[in-house]
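FAQ: What does a ligand-bound record look like?

Like this one, built around 6-phosphogluconic acid:
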Amino acid sequence: MALSGGSTPLQMFRLLATDPRLSNFPWHHTHLFWVDERCVPFDDSNSNFGNTSTILLEKVPIPGKNIHPMSCYENPEQGSINYEKEIRSFFNLSGKELPSFDLILLGVGKDGHTASIFPESMALEEKKRLVLAVTGGEPQVTRITLTLPVLNNAKQVLFMATGKEKAEIFAQIVAGGPCELPAAMVRPASKALFWMVDREAASIFLSKGAF
Ligand code: 6PG
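The answer part, i.e. the structure of the complex:
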């Protein structure tokens, strides 16, 4: 599976690191990749890998060889090339083949970005590269990110959104219809696209009598 950063997944990571989930999760059969990473040292509080390590990886029996961090602090472009090579090797890809992650966990920003694919960014047009070095978002650091072709080739995609600040963007994205927001462009060919939201994030969607 490929994990996103930001704050939303952290509570899920805490739950995964406690029983009964801790004992029941198939850690030895799970390989963890990242959806995106800020190009900062792993011990920087903005590091997605660093935060996931502290809250989850250091607390669960996942083999070290099953953990595939994005390393891009020194040289983002080279980091994106290296990560693409690692993905191609792990999935034994040739030519234009795309990796098919079993599960990609995504968050969504208030502006509709997901991964580190921001509105009106060049990354939205990428059709060939699996991983790109990009700028944008908060914190204002260079990042590397999986691209839409990879996200849309996943067997399953799970978005998570919590809190009132995500209510407007969630309602806008799931309303359907033409939408150029990056999160709305995640439409996996598998059709296995799920949203896990709390009541606050769903409040506008629900107020429209969606159910
Ligand atoms: C990142 C994330 C990013 C995140 C959204 C939502 O590295 O910033 O991958 O795409 O999922 O920005 O962030 P929150 O969960 O903190 O609201």
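Follow-up question: can I read anything off the structure? Yes, for example: The beta strands are 2-3, 32-34, 36-38, 67-68, 104-106, 131-134, 143-146, 157-161, 193-197.
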